[in-house]
Amino acid sequence: MELDTLAGMSLNLKVGSAVSRFVPGLALVLAVAGCTPEQTLVAERPAVRQDALAGAEAKLAAGDFAAAAADYARLGNAGADALAERARLTAALIAADLDPAAPITLPPQVPSDPGAARLHGLLAAARLEQARDFAGALTRLSALGTGDSTPYVRGLSLRLKGRAALQAARWGEAAGALLGAETAPLPPARRGELTQAIWTALNHVQDPDPAAVAATGSPHAAGWLALLEIYRKQAGDAAAFGAAIDAWQKQYSNHPANELLIGELVEQSERLLATPRQIALLLPFEGQLAGLSEAIRDGFLAAWYADPRGPSRPPVALYPTTPAGINQTFDKALAEGASLVVGPLEKAAVEALAKRANRGAPVLALNTSDQSAQGEGAALYQFSLRPEDEAAAAAQRARADGLSHAVAIVPANSWGDRVAAAFATQWQTDGGRLLGTIRFSQEVEGYAAAVKQIFGVDESEARAAALRRITQRKIEFQPRRRNDVDAIFLAAYPIDARQILPQLRYFHANDVPVYATSHVFTGNVNASADQDLDGVSFADMPWLFRRGGERLKTTVDTVWRDRQREYARLFAFGIDAYRLLPYLAQLKAQHGMRLAGTTGQLWMDTGGGVHRDPIWARFRGGVPEELGAGPPVSSQ
Prior knowledge:
By secondary structure, the chain is an alpha/beta fold. Helix content is about 50%, strand content about 10%. It has helices spanning about 25-30, 45-60, 65-75, 80-100, 115-130, 135-140, 150-165, 170-180, 190-205, 210-215, 220-235, 240-250, 255-270, 290-305, 325-335, 345-355, 385-400, 415-430, 445-455, 455-470, 495-505, 525-530, 550-560, 560-580, 585-590; strands spanning about 280-285, 315-320, 340, 365, 380-385, 405-410, 435-440, 485-490, 515, 535-540, 595, 600-605, 610-615, 615-620, 625-630. Strands 2-1-3-4-5-13-12-11 form an eight-stranded mixed beta sheet, with helices on both faces. A seven-stranded mixed beta sheet has the order 7-6-8-9-10-14-15, with helices on both faces. The longest helix has 20 residues, at about 560-580. The radius of gyration is 29 Å and the shape is globular.
């Protein structure tokens, strides 16, 4: 087939069919940027070529992507200079945008022209995204400038960055890029994808900053924020949500969410758990768990008082529990009108409820059972502050940071075994190599021995001792550590971590990043005590960094100041236990959905277990500084 001549340019191409459904006869021209088909080139006057370029850009700005791609391809094959290089690469980018499934061929040589080099880098990022190497795509995109790119190319760059950041759970970065992309032209088939991606990103941002959202330049910024507020406050009440959405649609009639998203959100709201007649909160208010239970209760009731439904919120009744009497207490709660039960807290009590053939009401247990729920009774959901979730999050964070060879340092007990196993599973699932797991004892010698074992210093010392015995000479010896470790996972409480970190520095391992669970931080800032923890990154809750409800945090700090200092994380746990209730059925039905909570981003596995993706912080000057969210823990 022969393409038409363009402004006197003689051009013959053999054309395939990769994107023929967009432009008949264009295929191979758009699939490659280096132009290998047979061609005959005739030098064109600069003015004619500039006019052709302006025409292609005008079609692109007008949304005629297929015609623009054809023009860029013809122009790109009319020369070998910088303008032609840019045109060929732009044609390839449009082709990839029109047909995401078509393989992307990247010219091996990076152009010397800065503008063409940027386009080449953008095509490389698109290819990395196609290969699901999202971290690589983000790295490539971050190195690119915008230069004198067209609005379309700038928008494409933002969409690529936003999608890759979304996959890496960098929610704020994703939201900013995707909202910014709304100012640029894009193929109609990509509009729905962008709408869904923006909603996903915004819905994962704890408290979006209106100024930052507006700064993206999105013409729909105000509508997005208003929709998010309605969804978060009223989705649990289908009638109120529907009325609020009607008002929103009248105010934002041209918003892109109207075409695709609104119907889904209304349907989701209608599927939410119906408002219960009464909530029963079952906790062990006596014995060793009394203090923990009171903190959970206070957080739960604080969230209840802050519930925007006000007088229409369901009443809460408290029931003290013991593992032995859990079935009787449960039956009593149902008999007294409860249609939803929260608790119990003790593992044995949760297992007792899991064994019931008929529960009679949905249960959100505040611990996990090692066995699946039995019988055909109402659903049993399980929510706890599992350290395994944080260990898995640490593995994902380190892999997202580009690290691949790790060692784990955990206490020599069953708790250490649990978190070590969770870290190892996630780390190896994500392609990392675990070089070893070291268990420390809580003695000064135990800390040093653990660090020596990690880096092979003990073996180095043993070799030196053997050499001294053989030679019968006093040999000066400087121990050397192994250098293949690029990440350390640490599961330790502050008293242990403050001993381990100085040992790492002593053996010259201060350049190896350390990722820890929240247990490394007491929850209260103590710069002098924690200065030895500088550089340690750890998973924790938004609540400790005054996110997830600024007004509620202020109230809790005022009313329960002393208990909040001791049990801050349990207050947040109680708050999320209450806030989860309207979304339990939806979370289970929509695998992968996440709910912004005070303990992290909450999601549910297929068995009804609630998990959380934490945020990240790093010690600096003995004070933890928030880093933001990490990658999502696998929901497989």
